[in-house]
Specification:
Blueprint: E1 8-15, E2 18-24, H1 26-31, H2 36-49, H3 70-93
Length: about 90
């Protein structure tokens, strides 16, 4: 959840010169490799004035690291393996 006054604005071009703005959390901004300072200022402007810039959010000059939710990944891997095991059993029984 992004609380009022927080977050990062991500402006992207969607074709034909049109832009789309999204608000995202820090992890989302890092995954998109956004310039965090610019995206943060854009979000502050959005919350203050209700406006976003008419330009694409610049990329970070360096590759940003993000924190992986290891518990979430482990749970997804487990569910995927259970699903594959179930499919293999169905195919084997035919």
């Amino acid at each position: 959840m992004i609380r009022r006054g927080e977050g990062y604005i991500f402006v992207e071009e969607i074709g034909g010169g049109r832009l789309r703005a999204n608000i995202t959390c820090e992890e989302g901004a890092r995954l998109r490799n956004l310039d965090l300072a610019v995206a943060r200022r854009d979000a502050q402007r959005w919350w203050r004035d209700g406006m976003v810039p008419k330009r694409v959010t610049p990329q970070s000059p360096v590759k940003l690291e993000h924190k992986r939710d290891e518990a979430g990944y482990a749970d997804a891997r487990r569910r995927t393996q259970e699903y594959l095991d179930m499919l293999n059993k169905i195919l084997k029984d035919k």
